[in-house]
Write a structure and sequence with these properties.
Pfam families: MerR_1. With 119 residues, the protein is mainly α. Helix content is 73%, strand content 3%. It has a single domain, classed as Multidrug-efflux Transporter Regulator, Chain: A, Domain 2 (Orthogonal Bundle). Strand 1 and strand 2 form a beta hairpin.
């Protein structure tokens, strides 16, 4: 599929994909005889994972590092596993903080509900 089709399937702009290609997150790109980039379903799965990492707050530099390790093959699986485990740990800490804050907000909502019912 072309870069336009690839971008459409992912819901991003083709310039965003070119950026990921430029920083090494999206590689290697196969090219047709006419020079156009050619993408596969495997590329879609990879970029969906990249966007998931980005959406969960992994810095782009770390995503690029992960991509570089991925490109080197299975021998880098321990490093990639460690990166994902560290990211998971950060996400769980954030989730715990947000859950605590949500609990406190709900307590305040209940307080104000009771207060308004008295008036």
């Amino acid at each position: 599929m072309t870069i336009k089709e690839f971008a459409f399937k992912l819901g991003v702009s083709d310039s965003a994909l070119r950026y990921y290609e430029r920083i090494g997150v999206l590689k290697p790109i196969r090219r047709r005889k006419n020079g156009y980039r050619e993408f596969t379903e495997s590329d879609i799965a990879w970029m969906e994972f990249v966007f998931r990492l980005k959406a969960t707050g992994m810095p782009i530099a770390q995503i690029a590092e992960f991509a570089e390790l991925r490109e080197k093959g299975e021998s880098t699986a321990p490093e990639r596993l460690k990166m994902l485990q560290e990211h998971e740990k950060r996400l769980l800490a954030e989730l715990e903080t947000k859950t605590h804050n949500l609990t406190k907000i709900r307590e305040k909502i209940e307080y104000y509900k009771k207060l308004t019912m008295r008036n």
